[in-house]
Amino acid sequence: MSESPQEKTQPEAGPVPVPEQEAAEAVSDEAAAEPAATPARTPWWRGAGLALLFIAVGAGLVGWYWYQGRIETSAMRKELAQKLADADAKVLEDRRVAEQARAAVSAVQGRVGALEGQLVQIQARLAALETLLQDISRNRGDVAIAEIEQSLVIANQQLQLTGNATAALTALRTADEKLGRLARPQLNDVRKAISADRARLRGLAAVDTAGLTVQIDELLAGVDKLPLAMDVRPQPGARSDLGGAEQPLWKRLLRETWQELKQLVRVQRMDRPETPLLAPSQAFFLRENLKLRLLAARLALLSRNTQAYKADIGAARDWMQRYYDVRNAAVARAVETLSSLHAAELSAEVADISASLEAIRSYGRGQASTAEKP
User: How crowded is residue 357: how many other Cβ atoms within 10 Å of its Cβ?
Assistant: First the structure.
């Protein structure tokens, strides 16, 4: 190092200055020497320290930025890793859902295939059922036609045997209603024939065959209970003894004497025929023959044989008036019933519903011939 000018002048000898003087001189010397002094150099260590300071500050900043960047990078890395993990989980979940969807689609496709197969089978069964229903409907219509024909046959038989027009009208109305429910235009002719038969039956005179038959049956049931005329003839010794115990003795003797005298003489009217006397066996056969007459009259009534009916009823009435006690109330009622039965007029015209039967039979024959054709 170079020495300053003051250091070079120190070895020179001279008087020892006083401290105050030395200080003043030093100040003056320094003041005099300042204009002539050269600029001093900066120590090297100061520049090095400043450089080191800048380097340290820069290194600190760099380190701080590096640390901050590392923290941010670590955070970003963690976030990226989390996002990647979430993305992987999402992908796995989507893959699992896709697999499930694929499996579901496969299952649905399988079910759809099975359903299509079942649909084909159901369609085939429906076609078979439709055919079967058509056959059943056709057969049901045929069965209904057969039932209607049978009911009309029975009604016609009853009409011819018993003349029961009410039952025939009921059968015709029921047949017409059934034919209407079938709704077949081919049955219009049959319905027209039924309508014509119904109108014709309504125009016939109504005969209460059932009522007349009931009256005849009542007479048949009471024949055995009616008294015969011979059963009520006065018997000898049948006299009244009313009040005999209360009358005096002479009055009773007089009355008994008078009764004995009356038995000696009998007064009888001759303007009426004598009541026939019948043996017990003849009385039995009389009642049985009367029953046979009433039964024959009932058969004639059911067969609409007016002549035989009136003959049998008239004979039964004559027998009852001749052989039975007409003074009896029951016999009088029986005679009156027989008179009303004899006065009843039976219809001479025998009604039938053959037109309706022929029409429905013709329809059945036409249906049978149509079914036989290929």
Answer: 20
